[in-house]
Amino acid sequence: MTTVLLAGMAAPLAAQDLSRSTLVLDASGSMWGQVDGVAKITIAQTVIQQLLETLPATQEQGLMAYGHRRKGDCSDIEQLIAPAADTRDAIAAAVAKISPKGKTPISAAVRQAADALRHSEEKATVIPISDGEETCGLDPCAVGADLEASGVDFTLHAIGFGIADDTARAQLQCLAENTGGVYRDAADAASLSAALSQVTASPAEHEIEPAAAMVSGPATAQAGRVIDIPWQGPAEEGDWVSTMAPDAEDFASRIGIGHGNPAPMPTPSQEGSHDIVYVRYETGEVLARQPIEVTPMRASVSAPATGVTGGSVMVNWQGRGTETDFIGIAPKAEGFATTSFYFETKGPDRQALRLPSQPGDYEIVYIATTDPWEVLDRTEITLSDPDLKLKAQPTVPCEEDFAVLWTGIAPNPADYIALAKPGEPRPHVITYAHTDSQLVRLTAPAEPGQYELRYFYAEGDRIVATRSITVE
């Protein structure tokens, strides 16, 4: 987890009273993670440097860091510079030397910063910037509530920096809300700087006007489908519509409003009661919701009960019709199907499916590429070898071309007919030709003798038919 805590940093000076404040910098190992090819610690150092330049020399500012000395130590929290006036250069120099190593005791760091501020009895602001969850066992949400109840005169505004996990985002939102603060998302250096500018503005500027929003959609929808969701709302950059189960913290599926209105939102892969919601990116607040009942995914496949190895069968299917789902064939077995040949479920609802080269019992399966993948339907098919025959002159002259005719299966350009010496190990061949059509031509070798024509399936180089031939 990556967290930067800026305690009480305020700009411009005219916007609010000066306060005794502490900057708390997360130096946990995840700070080496990158955003747009730049390490997060580098981005944080640069943004903090820029913010320090906006602070007045008279502001009493200190520096605390954690995770910068030892790996795996939740007690690695250190005050590097005591709060005092005109410490900007010293803080900038100290921040530049920090090299991330350890864990992320964000809750303990917030608590220690608040305890230090408690002694001065001055109003202060704490601003955590985090990319993940607390890693030292405490609950940031509960810590925020405890600090608010204790009477410490400070407010916490949280910034999520490149957060992809909804649980971590909810944790930071709760921490901010429990101390009367706000939450902001930041995806890169520019948005991190903008978010810091917003939360370090005057208290009046922190007030966010209530925003009206609306979502509408069907009362029921099949799982794993894409449905159109008309919406109204602030339409701010990064806002999205989503589904979530009632009382859940995580979103089941989501789509940014930039994809259009109505928004083409995927439904969850699991059936059950959900809400369609409009979420404001700037605050993470759910502005509107509408219930939807998600029904189970449905799909079907049908095909002949028998087929020939190396051939193909026509498969009729119904399903979601997405470009990512697919229909394939796999050996009949326990567990999830491991397919060999397949086609994607787009285009006609009746398509040809290539068959494996080995005889046996198989299943044709419809696989939905949900998370996790799911087999929605299956039908059994038994494969046997075709009555494949090779025809050619029994004797051919040395170094002369000769024709080979074959029957019993439709042409497959990947298969091939080869000439080899009897008893030679597979796939030892002298010459070959691909089976683009049912008549191919080969060239006899210069050495006379007994030879063997072999029909090979491309899959596994399996020989399925042979014929003796003499070269003179």
**Cα end-to-end separation:** 78 Å
Mean pLDDT value: 83
**Which CATH class of the largest domain applies here?**
Alpha Beta
Shape: elongated
Summed up, the domain count is 4
The CATH level-2 architecture of the largest domain is identified as: 3-Layer(aba) Sandwich
Q: Which percent band covers the strand fraction?
A: 35-45%
Q: Helix count?
A: 7
Helical proportion? 10-25%
CATH homologous superfamily label of the largest domain:
von Willebrand factor, type A domain
Q: Indicate the CATH topology of the largest domain.
A: Rossmann fold
- Report the sheet with the most strands, covering strand number, pairing sense and barrel closure: 8 strands, mixed
Q: Which segments are poorly predicted (pLDDT under 50) over 5 or more consecutive residues? A: 7-18, 202-206
Strand tally, please? Answer: 35
Secondary-structure content class: alpha+beta
Please tell me how large the radius of gyration is.
Answer: 34 Å
Task: Please provide a written account of the structure.
The structure is a single chain. The protein has 472 residues and is of the alpha+beta class. The protein has 4 domains: 3-206, Rossmann fold; 214-295, Immunoglobulin-like (Sandwich); 300-384, Immunoglobulins (Immunoglobulin-like, Sandwich), CATH 2.60.40; 389-471, Immunoglobulins (Immunoglobulin-like). It contains 7 helices and 35 strands. Strands 1, 2, 5, 6, 7, 8, 9 and 10 form an 8-stranded mixed β-sheet that branches. It has a 5-stranded mixed β-sheet with strand order 12-19-18-15-16, with no helix packed on it. The chain is elongated and about 105 Å long. Mean pLDDT is 83; it is low at 7-18 and 202-206.
